[in-house]
Amino acid sequence: MYKHILLPTDGSAGSDAAIQAGVSLAKALGARVTGLHVVPPFHTFTYRPDMIEDTEEQYEKESEEQARKVLLTVEKLAQECGVPCDSVVVRSDDVHDAIIATARERQCDLIAMASHGRRGVRALLLGSETQKVLTHSLVPVLVYR
To answer: Across the strands, what pairs with 37?
Structure first.
């Protein structure tokens, strides 16, 4: 059925649960997985507090270290379960576009990701990356709650 599953993660508890389920599914299907972490590129003017005081070089280094730490969760779990795994860090302001593009470029046939459950005004104003992936992806999407 599915042979290559993309597992986007932001390092949250919800993402970790989706990773566990996604790796278990991959094991059951004999599929491989690709872990993905999307990092926003450095901007001089930003709403993100972690960029305000950093230099571009410092931000790049620290965000890469954080991404590798987040992706290590995917890699370790896949190794423990005997599931082939690779991982990728993508720099983009548009998380949903990066997820969809990575699935296409790496020929994934399923995206398995967490639902982050924004509610109320925040969901209306910010939207949900998961919802955007569901809306725009041509690759099937499995959402874990």
So the answer is: 89
The answer to whether the Cα torsion of 112, 117, 121, 126 is positive or negative is: negative
The CATH number given to whatever domain includes residue 69 is 3.40.50.620
Number of domains in the chain: 1
DSSP state at residue 134 = H
> Distance (Å, rounded) from C-alpha 88 to C-alpha 90?
6
**Residue 84 domain boundaries:** 4-123+132-144
Helix and strand counts by DSSP (H, E) for the chain: 6, 5
Residue 144, token pair as written in the block:
């874990």
pLDDT in tens, 35-78: 999 998 887 665 556 555 667 788 889 999 999 999 999 999 99
- Tens of pLDDT, residue by residue over 98-137, are 999 999 999 999 999 998 755 455 454 445 899 999 999 9
- Phi, psi (deg, nearest 5) at residue 38: -100, 125
Checking DSSP bridges between strand 141-144 and strand 110-114, what pairing results, if any?
parallel
Rounded distance, CA 113 to CA 21, Å?
9
What's the rounded Cα separation, in Å, for the pair 9 and 98? 12
Phi, psi (deg, nearest 5) at residue 77: -65, -45
